[in-house]
Amino acid sequence: MTSERRADRSESFGEALLGAVLDRAHELPPHLIGPLVADVVEKLGGRRPQVLLQDYGQLLLVPLPGEGLTDGQPHMIDGSEAGRCFLDAVPVELPEEDGVRVHMPLLDGGDQVGIMAVTLDSVDDDDRRLLHRISGLVADLLVTKHGYSDLFFRVRRGEAMSAAAEIQWSLLPPLAMIMPRVAVAGILEPAYDVAGDSFDYALNGDVLHVVMIDAMGHGLDAATMATVAIGAYRHARRLGIRLSEIYDFMDRAVAEQFGPEHFVTAQMLQLDTTMGRVQWVNAGHPPPILVRDHRVAKRLVAPTTLPVGLGGSQPRISELGLERGDRVLCFTDGVVEEHKSGGEEFGEDQLIDCVNHLERTGRGVRAVTRSLSHTLKRARGGHTTDDATLLMVEWRG
User: Fold this and answer.
1) Which of 4, 113, 133, 377 is at 20 to 30 A from 197, Cα to Cα?
2) 20 or 326, which is more confident?
3) Which tens digit of pLDDT belongs to each residue from 208-247?
4) How much is the pLDDT for 346?
């Protein structure tokens, strides 16, 4: 009897290179990610490796320190090749005197952690394939090791951050999630002093759950109230109950903890990612905006109930069928109630004009949401006296 021929299981160069990351990853201290990247890049024949992380203000890509990694000044995200790699999540290759500088996006679940840069003598498809896989592993390492160290927080913190803002950043999910059927992207301003605004999302099977909240007040009081509201939302969501029941649960939690004179406005959505059917409940929050064919189609005005904590009646659930590529933009009142540098209130009409202008670029939700927030901030003269948060959901079909 002839035995079956066994597949070749010898270790190739590429497997050995990736294995060097995987074999050391489990017990690797966070501060040694840099030396590991440098070692792998050297084996690939590369030099001057860098890992660049986005700062909390989403303005800069900041070098991660580490033995073997190249130091340098932060890169502006806008107007740089490193920034183009970051915003569009695509590799960027730049010819240099001594070779080719390759920028690779560091992606984890569609969230953009940062970029990895390395110089090679030349670049072929084998190099591109290996760099793509190495950058994926490095992104996973950065995400999984983040909770064990303050290193990455310190690198990303571009200026002093308030205690309330630190609470909010620790509460947030990843700022973006890009999946085949759905994409989500959010941004908070002021990044280093946000207090009462927050959002959360979860993709459970085929259903995307989203909430945006705005807790009254400022500072630690608002951050504490937002923490309770988001915690109550997550608990209720995980029970698998209806949107109206989630509202009731959040309402009781906030009222019991803070009394009848405190409240949180909220916008809660559920999107069936197979059918494109979205349901939402509005609790005293500005209505979301529907973007279709890269233009604002309408404001999703619907019946509302009292903000969370004020004991409103059971909310009515609104419903809408989305078309492939539709985007739903949620925002807090600080986005439209802030005053422009000339003193006039910004208003929803100005917001819609900005959305229409940026949607014409055809960029993804992460780039559009970031650009929209920064455009609005510039229109306000660079000042933000209230939290101003954006969250965009795209049904990709």
Assistant:
1) 113
2) 326
3) 999 999 999 889 999 999 999 999 999 999 999 999 999 9
4) 73
Helix H or strand E encompassing 298: strand 295-299
pLDDT digits over 176-203, tens only? 999 999 999 999 999 999 989 999 999 9
117: tokens are 């840069």
Tokens read off for 27: 């017990």
* 48 pLDDT higher than 50: yes
Range 161-395 has CATH code 3.60.40.10? yes
- At how many degrees (to 10) do helices 125-145 and 13-25 cross? 10
Domain boundaries along the sequence of the chain: 13-154, 161-395
Residues 351-389 pLDDT 10s? 999 999 999 988 999 999 999 999 888 877 766 767 899
Task: Measure Cα distances from 281 to 67, 152, 393 in Å.
Answer: 51, 36, 16
What is the distance between the alpha carbons of residues 144 and 301, in angstroms, rounded to a whole number?
Answer: 40
Q: What is the DSSP letter of 192?
A: T
Residue 88: how many other CB atoms lie within 10 Å: 15
**162 — pLDDT class (breaks 50, 70, 90):** very high
How far apart CA 14 and CA 134 sit, in angstroms, is 10
Q: Tell me, which fold does domain 13-154 have in CATH?
A: Beta-Lactamase (3.30.450)
**What are the residues facing 393 on neighbouring strands?**
184, 328
- Where do we find the tokens 């280093």? 192
Kindly state the tokens that stand for 317. 């659930």
Q: Rg of the chain's alpha carbons, rounded to an integer?
A: 23
Q: Cis ω on the peptide bond leading into residue 190 (within 30° of 0)? A: yes
Amino acid at residue number 338: E
Q: Hey, what are 248's tokens?
A: 């009731």
How many Å apart are CA 53 and CA 341, to the nearest integer? 31
Q: What phi-psi label fits residue 45: left (phi over 0), alpha (psi between -120 and 50 degrees) or beta? A: left
The residues near 300 (Cβ < 8 Å, ≥ 6 apart) are 280, 287, 288, 289, 290, 318, 320, 328
Q: Quote the CA–CA distance of 180 and 243 in Å, as a whole number.
A: 25
**Residue 359 tokens, joined:** 């949607």
